[in-house]
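Technical note accompanying the year-one report. For the benefit of new consortium partners, we illustrate the data format agreed upon in the data management plan: each record pairs a sequence with a structure-token string. No post-processing was applied to the example shown here.
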Amino acid sequence: MSDSALSSHSHNPTVFIDWPLFSRNSNGILCLYELSLYLHRSGFAVYGVPRKIRAFLASVNTLPTRFRDIPFTAKPFGSSEDVFIAAETVPRRTMDAVRAQGIRVAWWCLAPFCLLDGTQWPRIGDLSLPYSSYVDPDSERYYYFQPDPDASFKRALAHQKARPILARPRLCIYNGKGRFKKLTRRILDLCRESEIIMITRASPSSRRKLFELLSSSDGLITFDEFSALNLEAAALGLPVFLANPLFPERCRARFSIGKLQDYVVSDDEKFCELIAQRRQNKLDPWDLSELTSLNDATLDAWQSLLRVPFAFSDHVVTPDAASRFNDHTKMLTDKRIISVDNGGQAGGVWMSTFYISAISKGRHYKAIMMA
């Protein structure tokens, strides 16, 4: 749809939504598209703003059918009565274009500002509707949304209760964006009596194979607390051990799905206890509805806030809030735990073979040189 068509739409406010290039494997991207669809069907004038318009146009016919009727524009035009909903990784050029029009910015962040790939900080007077307690642990309310899980996950979830018990424990290890670190003695002992399988972005080669692996495993050791894999594994009934915790404990304690902290732990003794329960089929997988139970409330909240402008007042970014966002991100980055060096994963993935050998067979390396 051309930019000139925007002025002819009769509804207010016009809602522009940040559109990264579509990917079925990204929950964050799916959240933005699903919100666009919901508001579009609710009668709002909604326009997606693709980050890379040429790439978007080249792939538009591969979009799921339900998203193809949503109008889009390469450059939003509007006024202070309109709203641009942005994720934390929105490009600067998009944000500059939005602010030049005086359009109000509402942030729906899945990660803390500028922690990962983002470069844009909120301005005083913007709106902030945090996705979860990991984004803003001091917020009074969160706007959590879980896109409908794909068929591979649903199939794995449906077969969990019939899983066979293996002779030896099977543990998966995932470093993701997190740095490897030394494991505790209790976890090392557990690893050396278990089969260890490394998960990377390339292996397993498909989500079907990934969930088949998790379904047949007894636990996950993760060095990336911020990965969606942790939630997916927990929902399948796997204990998850945070080997290199990034966030304060209160972030997990305040997460919108309270059940998460019963499965995702940083205490090695508790993790071993959960492994024992898993191996006795006493650790139940979640019901699918537990993942999506907050979706309607979040979507309805967005609609209500857009229809009643003064309802946004509690979400305005104040100087104190801006300072709080900055302090939260600085505290996390100072830990030097997250390191995105190689296509969205930490460079330590190249040392995974040595790491797995060391923890499973007791081998020790004083140094590893990477050429």
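Partners are asked to follow this layout when depositing records. The first strand starts at residue 14 and ends at 19.
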